[in-house]
Design a protein that fits this description.
Order of helices and strands: EEHHEHEHEHEEHEE
Number of helices: 6
Largest sheet: 5 strands, mixed
Radius of gyration: 19 Å
Number of strands: 9
Helix content: 25-40%
Number of domains: 1
Mean pLDDT: 80
Strand order of the largest sheet: 4-2-5-6-7
Low-confidence stretches: 237-249
Shape: globular
Strand content: 5-15%
Distance between the termini: 7 Å
Structural class: alpha/beta
Amino acid sequence: MAQAVVDEEDYPSWINDDVFRKARFQGDPRYNRFVIIRTAYGPGSDQKFEHALEIINNIAQHWVEGEVEGVKFLITRGKETDFRYRDVPVEVDTRPNEEFVRRYENDVVEDQSLENASLAAVREYFKTWIASKGGRSNVGNTRYVACIMLDAETLSQLATAPKGFPHGCDVYSSSYWVKMVDVEPNPDEAVYVRVRGADDLIKYWFIRNLIRSHVLTHRKDREYPGVLHFGDPPSEGFEALGGPPLSLF
């Protein structure tokens, strides 16, 4: 999204137009969001839950910061090797990134009847929630396709993540993840998605907005072999690359 700085007059006027911010059709995803369903309510879970929410709620900000860093890195490198970058400023226009962050707003669902609920129970609850919002899982909005299930296991491992999940947390080999429950039971198991890094939640959000069918997954995670993970297998993905995380879109 980030791009080289342009003159204010060159920026499209419609970016601040009210029409641009209104729904174009019923269910139009004006916001970038996930549905987060809590299933852990035992002793100490409240603090862990709030910590997990803070991490998930900050991923858009971290992602756009990383994207800006990546664009600056490419421009700087380009200036060293390609004359076409000679007049391109290193500073970038971050307004599209700021708009992306502004639109990131999650739906948090807490219902103690879901304590220790099974995957199937969460899926059925999610379907009922979608129906209550007039949503459809086949058009327009990732939040009607899959939800984040924060169970006791997920909360416990996120509790070990640094507060705020700052840059420099070994991004490409981060073991922090959440469980995504798809509205369709195929496969009938949760998909683990990294909170940050290559093949992370933000990439998952982009992909599921484009692809309603099930996306690329693997069972070759080094720490959790056999568990279904979103994205490319480690040996084929971006983990071997150095430098800051770059935008894939």
